[in-house]
């Protein structure tokens, strides 16, 4: 079978994880790389032996033999690049967030339908073995009716800088960057209910913590000094199945340490994902805690390998995509509504 010739668009931090995922799957051949920063594209091509290098994605998309791409660029380019790639007949794996807003996301979904190709969104947390096992418990009725949930992704001093804190290129701060991961994961585990309404708040109290000397864990390749996004956001989201999600995200917050978790609360059992999947229920008249035995939790590389393998399964075997564009659109509708609620101070009903 011919290998799937694949292109990487955007050769920054996250592209490395996509590339390692492709390299781990022999159905794929890394064929082209594109970055507006020529030196970065060339260095990536050299490091991973990728034969074709571009600085303009439109030129790259002219390669007839190229079948699939990963879009690993700034958020403001996800929509135009994905639409162009679909129009050129390529399958697309687009990084989260799907787009800057739901209007762009709808346009991407339309382009996917017209192209007959796949547009998958990189909600990588869906590909953890902990999420898969928890979903299995949920689908088998172990948790009963899940009516309340909490999700957090909080960093004490964790704005990556550069485009991440430049609203024109990011669309927002921790809510659109980190919140999408946990909101999506909760919604996925709840069976993808539709959001009915949100009440949100967003703050810019600490900004990028100027003056703090402690080193950051992750700084983007093109870090700069600007900061015009929120540094903390929180929301309550009501879904059409009656469930409620309480979510909090931050780049900067006076909290003891960075943390990320999701917790679900059902009539028969509760569950939390971090640091390890655990379920809390009742048995023989006692409160019991259940820790499913599983292979060690996947690290970031493992999540991406699973995500890329699934993308290639969808392309080669027509497998049903578990991270489809329509779910990306729904998440963008929720994100738009949280920002609107934070701006207006009112609950936003999602039509
Ligand atoms: N799934 C995850 O857990 C995860 C983690 C980090 C980042 N991301 C997402 O991945 C994307 C990239 O983030 P990153 O951390 O790699 O950023 P980055 O700044 O390290 O890399 C982005 C690269 O895209 C290039 N680029 C920008 N516009 C381009 C264009 N029009 N054509 C070609 N190249 C272009 C930049 O020059 C840069 O090299 C973002 O959407 C981010 O939200 C996802």
How would you portray this structure in words?
The chain is of the alpha/beta class and 351 residues long. It folds into 2 domains: 4-125 and 303-324, NAD(P)-binding Rossmann-like Domain (Rossmann fold); 132-298 and 331-349, Dihydrodipicolinate Reductase, domain 2, CATH 3.30.360. It contains 10 helices and 15 strands. The strands form 2 sheets. Strands 14-13-12-11-7-10-9-8-15 form a 9-stranded mixed sheet. A 6-stranded parallel sheet has the order 3-2-1-4-5-6, with helices on both faces. Helix 4 (78-87) packs parallel to helix 5 and helix 5 runs antiparallel to helix 10 (325-344). The protein is globular and about 65 Å long. The structure holds nicotinamide-adenine-dinucleotide (NAD).
Uncertain runs with pLDDT below 50, 5 residues or more? none
Strand content: 15-25%
SS-based class: alpha/beta
The overall strand count is 15
Oligomer: single chain
Strands across the major sheet, in which order?
14-13-12-11-7-10-9-8-15
Catalogue the ligands.
nicotinamide-adenine-dinucleotide
């Amino acid at each position: 079978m011919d290998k799937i010739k694949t292109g990487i668009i955007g050769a920054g931090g996250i592209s490395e994880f996509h590339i390692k995922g492709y390299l781990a799957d022999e159905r794929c051949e890394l064929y082209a790389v594109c970055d507006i920063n020529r030196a970065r594209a060339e260095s990536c091509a050299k490091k991973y032996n990728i034969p074709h290098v571009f600085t303009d994605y439109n030129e790259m998309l002219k390669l007839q033999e190229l079948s699939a791409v990963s879009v690993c660029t700034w958020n403001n380019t996800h929509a135009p690049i994905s639409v162009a790639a679909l129009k050129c007949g390529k399958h697309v794996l687009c990084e989260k967030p799907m787009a800057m807003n739901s209007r762009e996301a709808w346009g991407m979904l339309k382009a996917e339908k017209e192209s007959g190709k796949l547009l998958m969104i990189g909600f990588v947390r869906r590909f953890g073995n902990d999420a898969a096992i928890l979903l299995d418990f949920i689908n088998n009725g172990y948790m009963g009716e899940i009516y309340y949930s909490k999700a957090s992704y909080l960093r004490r001093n964790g704005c990556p800088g550069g485009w991440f804190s430049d609203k024109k290129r990011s669309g927002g701060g921790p809510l659109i960057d980190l919140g999408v991961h946990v909101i999506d994961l909760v919604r996925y585990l709840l069976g993808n209910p539709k959001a009915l309404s949100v009440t949100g708040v967003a703050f810019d109290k600490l900004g990028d913590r100027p003056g703090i000397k402690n080193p950051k864990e992750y700084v983007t390749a093109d870090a700069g000094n600007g900061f015009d996004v929120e540094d903390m956001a929180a929301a309550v989201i009501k879904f059409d199945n009656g469930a409620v999600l309480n979510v909090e995200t931050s780049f900067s917050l006076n909290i003891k340490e960075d943390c990320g978790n999701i917790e679900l609360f059902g009539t028969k059992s509760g569950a939390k994902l971090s640091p390890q999947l655990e379920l809390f229920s009742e048995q023989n008249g006692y409160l019991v805690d259940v820790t499913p035995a599983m292979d060690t939790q996947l690290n970031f590389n493992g999540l991406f390998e699973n995500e890329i393998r699934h993308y290639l399964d969808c392309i080669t075997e027509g497998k049903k995509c578990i991270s489809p564009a329509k779910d990306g659109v729904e998440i963008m509708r929720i994100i738009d509504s949280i920002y609107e609620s934070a701006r207006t101070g009112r609950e936003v009903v999602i039509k």
